[in-house]
Amino acid sequence: MRLQTELSKNDYLQYQLYMASKRKSTRKERIKSQILVSLFLCITGFLLASVNRNKNYLIAFGLASIISFIVYPFLLRSFYKRHFANFINENYGNKTGRPEILEIKNGCILLKDNKSETKLKIKEIQEIVEISTNYFIMIDSTAAIILTKNKATSDFINNLHEKHNLKYSSELNWRWK
Predict the structure, then answer these.
(1) Which of 12, 69, 122, 126 has the most CB atoms lying inside 10 A of its own CB?
(2) Is the pLDDT at 92 greater than 90, yes or no?
């Protein structure tokens, strides 16, 4: 079976965000930074209130701490998105918009573009992940073949999954949060 595809920057972004959401270390880091910012504001308010003998500092910084605890995840979410978008522009900018051909032959997937050809043994594939916009053919915890979701890719993935009995995860409700 043969599939021609073309990836956009958004396809790469969806993959980066998906992988970040699945890493325990990223989740822990996000929670830790949220708590540290709020704690810093509380301590600052407490110190200013005790030095100036004015409880207004404690009240103001306490409210700022509560507000930051609520708002910080939204700001951090957009920060990660911007960070990954810049990363993609720097590292994958020349790969976007280029046609690629995937072909299943002799127990391998051949991935060709106008500059290179890669051969991947199908038994090296860990799983296929489906989200609402893309398919990710996961090779290991750091590498994947990214496919934009459409009728042709769905047929290709179904064929690959059924013929080779690969692990398949459907996460259609996944979104970056």
Answers:
(1) 12
(2) no
Burial class (CB in 10 A: 0-12, 13-18, 19+), 101: middle
Q: What are the structure tokens assigned to 90, written together?
A: 């720097």
Pair of tokens at residue 46: 């407490």
Residue 84 pLDDT class (50, 70, 90 cuts): very high
pLDDT value of position 131: 96
